[in-house]
Amino acid sequence: MHETFVLINCDLGKEEQIVKSLQEIEYVKEVQATHGVYDVVAKLETKTEKELTDIVRQKILGLGPVHSVLTLFAQ
Fold first, then answer.
1. 40 and which of 8, 26, 47, 54 could share a cystine (Cβ 3.0–4.6 Å)?
2. Angle, CA 21 vertex, CA 17 and CA 27 arms, to 5°
3. What is d(CA 45, CA 65) in angstroms, rounded to the nearest whole number?
4. Per-residue pLDDT, 55
5. Banded pLDDT at 1 (limits 50, 70, 90)
6. Following CA atoms 67, 10, 41, 28 in sequence, which dihedral angle do they give, to the nearest 10 degrees?
7. Burial level of 42, CB count in 10 A (0-12/13-18/19+)?
8. What single-letter DSSP state applies at residue 65?
């Protein structure tokens, strides 16, 4: 199991929209809007690195108001 934290930058005022969208993704276990450099933090649990890559590239970066992400792999 791969546990990963994804830090997300998005359009101002779109944090709650992103949180709601992320809550619908199967592998997202926790998600919070934050204040600071990043707007949203999500915890994902995937079986493979390919699953993680696909989720980040297709589902998270595919959300319109998302500008960038930073992924942190937990050990």
1. 8
2. 145
3. 23
4. 94
5. confident
6. -70
7. buried
8. T
Q: Encode pLDDT of 8-62 as tens digits.
A: 999 999 999 999 999 999 999 999 999 999 999 999 999 999 999 999 999 999 9
Write down the pTM of the prediction: 0.91
Please tell me whether residue 11 adopts helix, strand or coil conformation: coil
pLDDT at 75 over 80: no
* Nearest by Cα to 23 from 54, 44, 49, 39: 44
User: How far, in Å, CA of 45 to CA of 51, rounded?
Assistant: 9
Total residues found in the chain within this entry: 75
